[in-house]
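Replying to the earlier thread about multi-chain prediction with a worked example.

Input:
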Amino acid sequence: MNELLLQGLVNGIILGMIYALIGLGLNVVFGVLRVVNFAHGEFIILGAYAAYFLQRLLGLSPFLAMPLIFAGFGVLGYLMYFVLIRRLAKSDDPEHASLLVMFGVSIALGALMLLFFEADSRSLAYSFDPPFLMFGSVIIPTTKLVALGVVLAITAVLAFFLYRTLPGKALRAIIMNRDAVQIVGVDLEQLSAMTLGLGLGLAGVTGVLVAMIFPAFSPFIGQDYTLIGFIVIVLGGLGHPVGAIVGGIIFGLTEQTAQVYMNGSIASLMGFLLLIGVILVRPTGIFGREAMK
Amino acid sequence: MADNTRKTQLGAMAKPVIWGAIVIVLAVTFATVPFVTGNLSFMFYMMLWMTMATAFNFVAGLAGYMPFGYVAFYGVGAYATGILYKSAGLPIIVALIGAGAAGIVVALIMAPTLRLRGVYFGIVSLAMALAAKLIISLLPPNITGGSMGLILSSANNPMAAYYTMFIVLMLALATGTWLFFSRTGTALRAIRDDQEAAEVVGVNVVRTRLKAWVAAAVFPAFAGGIEAWYTNAIDLESSFNLLVTAKSIVYAMAGGLGYLVGPIVGSGLLYGVDHLIWQQFPTLNLLLLGIVIVVLILAMPRGIVGAFAQRFSRLRKYIP
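Result:
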């Protein structure tokens, strides 16, 4: 029983880091733009399809595909800012309006993928040798371990970017105080567009990892990932980058340890109950607004 | 002076009078449809979406909440109807009343989330809807029909379902009338615009919001139950389909949130277009729905009625 629990904890941390990556993409965008990207999950699935077709058509390995997808999705996000998001600032209630616009994008994108890629599940043909690694009694698939490595690397780069570079510091400054940043002379428009690019880029890369770890993906399942992302960031605190990581790991651990003792649906239910519980005790999440100042 | 007072009184009366006329026209139209046309289904769903959008307007338009898990009420209503009729063997009407009660119970369970504001509320409400779906999927299959769902063919009676939907729509419009024209409506608008100020003036924030919340939950629960009765089939995927939320939002917003006529105009136009042109292409229909949402929010954030009221501001006092 203890070994099973240990296995659950290890799985929880690995999946939790992937969930954290989903949350990070959402949170950077929410923090800077006040945009709730309801279509994040659809972009993740689009990233998975991109990796799939890059492999099928060009023979690219998922690792080579990742930077390409990041760049491509980054440009997409940058353009999307000017087409969709900039206009929302004039709305009566920009936060809700952004949620609704991205909800529309999510439905349209899901339908588009269904139209182009059809409803069949796809999976990425990629394997490691050896396929499993043993750590004492704990078995970890090599793909999961590699994915964990990639997530840690991305998180480290992102942390370096946010906390050590000038544009990163400007982004965090916007999260903390929008008005003051404009007085200092930061080009809010450019930085906002770049942030949406960063958010979508992260979604695309997450998609590649998701395609590697989970056996199959289809146009319908984007919303599941969006929801996981929301749970993670609401748990951690909307708009807070560190909160996303903490939220991701807590959610992953809850889900995976629950899976050891209960069936899958109850385990997912535990995730929702955790969210609802935390929110009722602390409406702003673990790292709430106050914690940021 | 006296003339002025009379004028303002006339102005104050104009909204209820115009609204009353609209309700009468709707009532006569829907009541006589089964005798005039063979297309019962189209008008049934028109009433269903008018009900869904109207009730959505209670929370979104008046209380300022965006319940992204709105489908929870609809799905729980459908399942309550199915379980009470099929598994408990109650008459269909009793089962439908049970659906309404189930909607109220779910609303009360979710009531603590009303403390949340803005997007937090929307996201948690969505999680609640998925939790409701998961809980139903975990109930014993001999009660819920498992993954196959429930078949209610023994209750089959489209005409009776049509008129039940008619009654529910009328009740929703009546509730809307009460919510918009009573003190409760004024209090709700005050809370939406500035909660702290409303509290200071002595509005009971919790109770007032709860009224709108419960009113917004009962009607989708009824609608879900009646739709299940009308189509004779219930399953998890269609009862908890996020598109139910999507369409309620789109129809209500297209018309104009915060106006009584908004959801009626929105559902009337968009459901009509949806049905007439797009129904043949399910995937394209979804794509168009998504695009319509985006274009609507960007181009006409206040909806058709809202844009009209802004353009012709002198007519605003006549628009209910």
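Residues 2-33 of chain A form the longest helix (32 residues).

Feel free to reuse this layout for your own posts.
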